[in-house]
Amino acid sequence: MRAVVQKGTGSKTEDVLCIVDLPIPEPRDDEVLIRVCAAGLNAIDGFRMQGVYGGSPETVPIGYDVSGVVEKCGRHATRFQPGDRVYGDVVANSIGPKVAGSLAEYCAVEQRLLAKIPEGLTFVGAAALPVAVETSVLALQALKIEPGQKIIVTGGAGGVAGHCIQIAKAPSLPFRAGEVVSSASTSKVQAVMKLGANRVVDYKSCPLGEALEPTSFDRILDTTGEFRSLKPLLKDPDAVDKLVSIHGSAFAAPPGEVSPMSVVPDGALLDFIRPALEAGHIIPFIDRFFAFESFVDAVDYAIHGRPTGKVVVSVEAPVHTE
Known about the structure:
The two termini are about 15 Å apart. The protein is about 25% helix and about 25% strand.
């Protein structure tokens, strides 16, 4: 099978990534073999390219988000059947040694990491969702969002924040925030407003922490590393559990300053948002998609192009016959 792998470390995609031919993986007892139709790209792919988290072995494809069709099931993988349309984050330990990847024609994945794709959702749309929506749901749960609350989600044009805004406001989910305020650069403000944000601050004109009234928000999700300047915006600025950050810098912050959060992927999180997807309350937030052969351009754009939403690679692998 064709797969995109990492052959070194660095920031130049064409020097680090290449297409190779790998054996089609055999699913273990608790895994299913997926014929990949699309793969989503994330910031963490760029981090691994630069050697963070140990990079990616040359025998393991890059990528986390996948959508495709089940080809074969392991002995104990009973949740799915061949022919099922599925999607998920294929990397069980996001920052640990990489043992699976999505940017390949086939992928063997633990069944617990997957969910069935809702009717009406395309493979490209589905591949944009797993990392972003799983991170969003876990963050909103960690913040204990309650209906009617006033919250901030920074960096609304990003893949996580753009989906989080929709999830926080979705009437078919339990969060149902009363007001969501976000931030974006000048050219992206309107795109974030269309996601359902009640207000979007143009951070090029005024920093978010200065544009909003102090002590006026119930909860804050920081995706951009601004947590120190945002703390005074909380109604209770000393309540560290009401300020969650998924930005890497939060893990180096002194105890009591912010609640850093890492992600543990789980297909159940995708099942959780299924009603909102089926109702049209969540729309995949995609900037653009690329053909498999244009993987260099795709990764370059995802990592360096400051996309508005997610970048997806269409794979469309040939059907495997044993």
